[in-house]
Amino acid sequence: MIKRMESVEQASCSGWRAGLSDPLVMKFGGTSVGSGAAFRRAAGTVAGEAAKQRPVAAVVSAMSGVTDTLLAYAEATARLDGTGQTATGSTLEGSLAELHRSLYERHLDAAREAVGPALLPGVERELLSVLESLLGSLTDEHPSEAARRAGVVVHGERLSAVVLAAAISTAGVPAEVAPDPIATDSAFSEAEVDVERTRARCAERVEPVLRRGSVAVVPGFVGRDRQELPTTLGRGGSDLSATVLGRGIGASEVWILTDVPGVLDADPRLVEGAGTLPEMSYREAHLFAGLGAKVLHHRTMEPAAAAGIEVSVKNSFAPGEWGTRISARECGRGVRCVAVRDGLSIGVLSAGERTAGKDVLCALGCDGGGLQVLREVGADGEVAAVVGIGAPTDADLVRGLASLAASGIEHLWAGSTALGLTFVVGSADARFALGALHGALVGRTESGVESEVPA
Ligand code: ASP
Ligand code: MG
Question: Start and end of every Aspartate/glutamate/uridylate kinase domain (predicted)?
């Protein structure tokens, strides 16, 4: 096992945290709680770890699809006309009743499968109270539209947390919902975490539950601003909730349980034969997620790296398997994984442009007129970049160029950037280039031998 990086941050806080020994945070994504069977499986996994006498906090996403539904309702009810009709023409009342019915049924159906009969009436009551609060959030006054949207969408995680806590109790370990330990600013749709206030809230809301010997079930994605208004950490933000919570309670390990076996070394929808990475460094995982690897929210590694928390990405169907372990450890030379980013153009930042705008993906180097950059321009972009992340060598650059040439793909630029080994190609070639570069670069070490899975 990879040794944990000692961190100053944890050492300085160990005093008031005495007694909570080695807590574990386990995060379940939307498909890992997408049905009654999935809740039961997740609850069994949590109960299994908690039975090892280890404090466990479970962070849970909304059931798959629920966040999208809630956002659609928030949108449709945003501009009600005088007739009380939503943007889609249905009456507000009818539409809210339908939302209430469908969410109640979906969660109750799941609970019937995962929760024992003794706990079911309590779950019904709690689901109804969360749904009442949801309807309130859709119709009440809010300080802004963004605040309203956040206030609506956080209910998805509140509903799934109710079911998961009861399912864990059914699996034999007491569990309680420990709501909203994460403190944020008021950027409602993608809020910034306040580390110190989060620590204090964890001490108040989560640690007492763990000390009682119960599993703390924390709704993911959700934060609270200084006025206690609900905020969100951005789409896919439950991963970030897990590492933020891990830092808040002094965990040395966070497990991200998902529907794939770990972090794959390329997008499996684009590359046949993408494999699972046994290990990654925080740096590599951060870059990979930033380039769009869907398995992790792009900011997940920030709290983990700051606090030296080992993050394991595991398949929720096979949590006993290794998955991918992410730590401070750098894994040696070579390209670990490849990502593609489309919708780019090559441009030049003139000396007059003082700051590289938000649309700049990376710098390519200087030419006479200024700094050459890759810009993200969306649909107008005619080029794509394939990036090899890891510790690439010159030999990798040569091998990569040879593989593109052998596949008849023209490269427009190639070299090292802040992201990794970067090959710029025409948009039409992006997918082929990704496949060719994956084949040529990933899984090789210096000597060209396939890398080994650690024991
Ligand atoms: N439920 C939220 C989303 O779909 C957060 C998450 O699942 O991570 O974006
Ligand atoms: Mg996710």
Answer: 24-315
Give me ligand 2 centre to Cα 27, in Å: 10
Q: Which tens digit of pLDDT belongs to each residue from 186-204? A: 999 999 999 999 999 999 9
- At the topology level, CATH places domain 14-327 in Carbamate kinase (3.40.1160)
Q: Which of 62, 275, 37, 251 is nearest to 156 (CA)?
A: 62
CB 336 within 8 A of CB 389: yes
Residues 130, 115: Cα–Cα separation, whole Å: 18
Residue nearest to atom 6 of ligand 1 (CA): 236
| Ligand closest to CA 240 | 1
Query: Mean per-residue pLDDT for 291-303?
Result: 93
- SS3 labels along 357-382: CCCEEEEEEEECCEEEEEEECHHHCC
Q: Hey, what amino acid is at 325?
A: R
Ligand nearest to the CA of 62: 1
The pair phi, psi for residue 64, each rounded to 5°, is -55, 135
How much is the pTM?
Answer: 0.90
Looking at the CA of residue 156, tell me the nearest atom of ligand 1.
Answer: 1
CA of 219 to the centre of ligand 1 (A): 10
442-453 per-position pLDDT tens digit = 976 544 344 444
Phi, psi torsion values for 367, nearest 5 degrees = -125, 180
Atom of ligand 1 nearest to the CA of 239: 8
Q: How far apart are CA 424 and CA 340, in angstroms?
A: 10
List ligand 1's pocket residues with C-beta within 6 A: 29-30, 61-62, 67, 156, 220-221, 235-238
Number of C-beta neighbours around residue 198 at 10 A: 22
- Residue 220's nearest CA partner among 291, 300, 132 is 300
Element (H, E) at 288: helix 282-290
| Domain 334-441 CATH class label | alpha beta
Overall average pLDDT of the 326-336 stretch: 96
Amino acid at position 434, single letter: L
DSSP 310: E
Ligand 1 atom having least distance to the Cα of 221: 5
The segment(s) of the chain belonging to CATH 3.40.1160.10 are 14-327
Is 281 in contact with 327 (CB distance < 8 Å)?
yes
Question: Alpha helices, DSSP H only, in 336-429?
Answer: 394-406
